[in-house]
Amino acid sequence: MLVPREMPLSTIHLENMLALSRMGVAMVPPMPAFYNHPETVDDIVHHVVARVAGSIWPRTSSRQALARIAAGPEFFSGE
């Protein structure tokens, strides 16, 4: 999984992303959504992180995925 910065993307970035995509890497750009009517920057960050976490663990809820991230590096050592 690659979470590229949102802009500007140069030709080199796009070519590298295309090459990675062809290798099976998922592209998950950190694009904030405004349909959920965020009230703070924290709301926007939470939404982006939840979407990335949902891509890592697609069969878990956003809340569960965020809890896994909050558990820290020791959680990841078992997977």
From TrEMBL:
Keyword Lyase recorded: yes
Signal sequence annotation: none
The protein's Enzyme Commission number: 4.1.1.-
Keywords carried by this UniProt record: Lyase
Location of the Flavoprotein domain: 2-52
InterPro entries documented for this protein: Flavin_trans-like, Flavoprotein
Pfam family, one: Flavoprotein
Record bears the keyword Lyase: yes
Transmembrane segments: none
Top enzyme class: lyase
Gene Ontology MF term list: lyase activity
Entry protein name: 4-hydroxybenzoate decarboxylase subunit B
Native source organism of the sequence: Escherichia coli
